[in-house]
Write a structure and sequence with these properties.
CATH superfamily of the largest domain: HUPs
Number of helices: 9
CATH architecture of the largest domain: 3-Layer(aba) Sandwich
Radius of gyration: 20 Å
Low-confidence stretches: none
CATH class of the largest domain: Alpha Beta
Number of domains: 2
CATH topology of the largest domain: Rossmann fold
Helix content: 40-55%
Strand content: 15-25%
Oligomer: single chain
Largest sheet: 10 strands, mixed
Number of strands: 10
Structural class: alpha/beta
Order of helices and strands: EHEHEHEHEEHEHEHEHHE
Length: 279
């Protein structure tokens, strides 16, 4: 595979070992360098406080964030020392609302960022914020791993969720190394628009693009027979016994998806396999 610079970001102790072991296994598989950012977050809210209290709160919160970052970094180094790969690790501190620039700077110099799934049983707002910063500020390709899952083997089946959006195309380009190595690639089009540019041949242009890259791909046009597009895709992934799903992230605004839901969030809540995304 083409990727030679990988990144993972740690914000919680529970993810250190499983996430780094999965990232390190993939780095060794493709002979890549793995960078690890251990991030301590200052979660203080200064909207209301007694006179003089803000400085005390800020100092305590920053000290806690620095301690969290140091602990994550130490745990990461312990795991990485046993992996036999090329790696570098650093610790940093940022405010929860101001970490986007820091993450974006690190992510934009990476071929692939490997992160835990932000939604689902163990997801939280911090994971989601890290993923969004990676996608929007870093413009990076992101591999999101469910609990207990590693980066999929190169010779498996891959499903591409296709809706003709630029986000989906960005994900396809980022996934090309995986698609080239896959045993089969299924382009899944759910309820194609009758007035879209591909109305006469849904997924045909993407299939042609992939074939020119030497990728065996076929198009599956799926009816929306379930309430959510995500449910249709999950069923198709299961039918294909796929090990990886490729899709664009946040075709709608993040605010709309946060309030009303959307394919991105629904898919990440339901998917039990790794999801590769880009924006």
């Amino acid at each position: 595979m083409a990727g030679k610079s990988l990144l993972t970001i740690l914000t919680e102790p529970a993810t250190v070992r499983p996430l780094l072991e999965a990232a390190a296994e993939f780095a060794g598989r493709v002979d890549a360098h793995l960078d690890v950012l251990s991030l301590g977050l200052d979660r203080s809210q200064m909207g209301y406080s007694y006179i003089g209290g803000a400085a005390v709160i800020a100092e305590i919160s920053m000290e806690r964030a620095e301690a969290d970052a140091s602990a994550l970094d130490a745990a990461a180094r312990t795991v990485l020392d046993r992996q036999g790969i090329r790696w570098a690790a650093e610790a940093a501190v940022a405010q929860l609302g101001g970490m986007s620039d820091l993450i974006g700077l690190r992510a934009c110099y990476s071929d692939l960022v490997i992160l835990p799934r932000p939604y689902g049983p163990h997801g939280d707002e911090t994971r989601a914020a890290v993923v969004e910063a990676t996608l929007f500020e870093g413009r990076a390709t992101v591999m999101l791993l469910p609990d207990g899952k590693g980066v999929p083997a190169p010779d498996g089946s891959v499903v591409v969720a296709w809706n003709q959006s630029r986000q989906a195309m960005a994900a396809v380009r980022g996934a090309l190394p995986f698609l080239k190595a896959a045993r089969e690639v299924s382009i899944a089009v759910v309820d194609p628009q009758p007035w879209g540019p591909e109305r006469s041949d849904p997924g045909g242009l993407l299939c042609q693009y992939l074939v020119r890259h030497g990728i065996r791909a076929e198009v599956s046009v799926l009816a929306k027979t379930l309430p959510d597009v995500a449910d249709v895709l999950v069923r198709h992934v299961h039918d294909r016994d796929a090990g990886l799903l490729v899709m664009g992230a946040y075709s709608h605004s993040r605010l709309r998806e946060a309030i009303m839901g959307g394919a991105t969030r629904h898919m990440l809540e339901r998917a039990e396999i790794p999801v590769l995304m880009a924006h």
